[in-house]
Structure formats: C-alpha cells, structure tokens
Amino acid sequence: MSLAERLQSLFVALAAVAGLAAGLLLPVGPAAEHVVLPALLAMLTAVFAQMDAAHVGEVGRARTLVAVSLALNFVFTPALAWALGAGLLGGEPDLRIGLLLLLVTPCTDWYLVFTAVARGHTGIAAALLPVNLVLQLALLPVYVLLLGGRAAMVDAATLAESVLLVLVVPLALASVLRWASYRFKGAAWRERYVTGPASRLVLPLLYAAVLAMFAWQARTVLEHGADLLALLPPLAVFFVALPLIATGLSRMLRLPADQGVTLVMTTTARNSPIALAVAVAAFPDRPLIAVALVVGPLVELPVLALLAQLVRVRPPAASGSAPARTRQGHGRER
C-alpha cells in the first residue's frame, strides 16, 4: 500500500477542512457547486477503468464465500442500516438517508488494497467487484425507496436517473475505453496509458470533490456540525458488528484463512464515493445528506487499516516457513 493510500483518511479530512475554510472566507460557493459532480463522475470512470471482468470466473471457485458475502452485503446490511437509522437517527431524516446510502453500497475499489495487505484471496476479491457493482446498481433505488421511507422524499424516476448518471454512464465510458485500448493497442499499452494513470487519478479527484463540496456547503456544515456527530454511534456499531459477524461465519463454515479475510473486507468496506455521487445527483436540495457521507470514510479507512492487521493471514508459528503467498486470479481478458 502506498503512502498516499495509507494517509487517505487524513487527506480526506484535510480536503474537507480546506474546503470549509475556503467556503467561509471566500465567495467560492457557487463556483464550487459546479465542480462536485463532474469530479465524482471522472473519479468513478477512473475507478471502473481498472476493473477486469476476467476475474469473474474466480467466483465459481468459492461458492460458499460468495454466497455468504452476497447475503451479508445485500440482505443483512440493508436491514441493519434501516434498524440503525430508525433507532439512532429517527429525528434526522437527512442523516438517515446518508447512513443508508453509505451502508448499502459495498466497496468496489479500496477493499482490494486492504485484502492484499491482510493476505486475503485477492483473486476472489477482484471477482466479487463487478458482481457487487451490478447488484448495488440494480438495488440501490429499491433500498432508498423501501427502507428510506418518508425520509427519502424522492420519486423513483429521479432516483433512477441519478443512478443512471453516476453509475451507468461512467461504467459505460470506462468499458469502452478499456475495450478500445486493448483492441487497438494491446494489454501492455492499456496498462501503461489507461489503467495505470486511472489508478493515480482516483484519489486526487476524490479530494477535489470533497474540497469543492465543503466549499459549496460551508454554511450548512457550520450550522449542522453538531448534528453530524450523531452519525458516529451507528457507524461504530456497523464497523464493529460486520467484522465480528464475518469472522464468526468464516470460522463456522471453515473457510480457508485467505477466504475468511476476503469475507471480512468485502462485507466491511463501503463505497462512499458512489454513495456520495448518488446523493449529490438525487438530493441536490438536501446537502446534509452528501455532507454526512464524507464522515463515512473518515471512520472507515482507519477501521480497515486496523482490520488488515488484526485478521492478517500469518504462517504457522512452529513451521518456520516463509509467509504463505496470497493467491491471485489469472484470468485473461478477451
């Protein structure tokens, strides 16, 4: 993991503080508003450009892990998100929707980094990425409309259009870019000039979006700063409960150690960039929802870094052998 990735949580916080200062001290709010969504769309295109569909074949080699991860991500977690919102944020509808958007979107990017650090099965983790993306794309409007209740206050057409804009369009652009570069220039050229640069653009674009959003909504943050603290208890419950449940299930089902690590990471990591993009597009008149989503990675990233050390696969103490290598997927894209 690079230094920039290790310090991502700090950089997100610094971007938020810089944006807040700029929004309070300078008349940049109206201009910053027009930066947020384009920066997020460019970031998601860069994320999707790195996705390799060839890994999907790995899914069939770990059916138990895949079934459990899908059940936790798309059945248990939405129910937990609703319960946490109703129980702890009942009087804060915008925070409830922000929490729901964050928790029902499994991660499709940085969990791979933490899986690798913890010596999990990165081949299966990569195979789950497009599966998680397609399912959250299809189910996100359903979750918001059914579980958000009156707090959502958005019609199905508006929500569907927002999901189409922030997920389908970047995914389509990235897919065309990957295919065209591979078709006309080859895999090596694509890696050097497409996927490599895309990986280096993701974090700067995320920081730019966070900075612009806080500059745009500086007054909102100032007025509701104390309210945002109400997100900490439900986030704490989630980021403690999910790793414990995933670890318990992996032991009960006797999953291999590297698959157990993968289960913990794929069910704990959340997709705050996608949730943020949906919030900005679907709820433009309710900025507190988007602001609430920035709190997520400030808590999540340190938790994932700690988890990577706690659940890391280690060699048997008595064997004296070198650490076991993480298994990788080696599918070839066509």
Automatic annotation (TrEMBL):
Protein's cellular compartments: Cell membrane
One Pfam family hit: SBF
GO molecular function, one term: antiporter activity
GO CC term, one of those recorded: plasma membrane
Transmembrane stretches, start-end: 7-29, 35-53, 65-85, 97-117, 124-146, 158-180, 201-218, 230-249
Taxonomic superkingdom: Bacteria
Keywords noted in UniProt: Cell membrane, Membrane, Transmembrane, Transmembrane helix, Transport
Main location: membrane
Membrane topology: Multi-pass membrane protein
Similarity-based family: Belongs to the arsenical resistance-3 (ACR3) (TC 2.A.59) family.
Protein's name according to its UniProt entry: Bile acid:sodium symporter
